[in-house]
Amino acid sequence: MDCQQGPADRSQLDHVGRPDLAGRAERAYVAAVGGLRAPAEISLLYVDPGHAGQGVGAALLSRLEAELATSGAPVAHLMSTRTALGFYRRYGWVAAGEPADWNGMPQFPLRKSLHPPGLRVEARPGGR
User: Fold this and answer.
1) What CATH number is associated with residue 52?
2) Mean pLDDT for the chain?
3) Taking the model in full, what pTM does it have?
4) What angle do CA 25, 109, 103 make, to 5 degrees?
5) What do you get for the CA distance between the two ends of the chain, in Å?
6) Is residue 124, in this structure, part of any structural domain at all?
7) Is 16 a domain residue?
8) In terms of Cα–Cα distance, which of 127, 84, 119, 123 is closest to 105?
9) 25 contact partners, CB below 8 Å, separation of at least 6
């Protein structure tokens, strides 16, 4: 894993011990973590507050979307907190239903097309 300082990009993201999690490590701790759930859900995207606004979340989101797209998923789904709604909307995510309650916190279902019209994306052999 690349542990150099500086703005995040896809090359700085790697799997962190599990094939369904990706993150960025810096100075021997994890600055961000993300997870996927089959068939096409981003189940986790968290950025340490000390790394907010540095592009870490955007790079991780892009990596997770790419993983889903190359596995053949045409549309991705996730549940957002109210705080993160603006972040996801900036990257093309749209509402996919009414908010649901999760342990007293509203969760907002969002979706995003991973294959814009006219774009052909080949799935990786074995669905990976």
Assistant:
1) 3.40.630.30
2) 79
3) 0.71
4) 80
5) 20
6) no
7) yes
8) 84
9) 1, 2, 3, 14, 16, 31
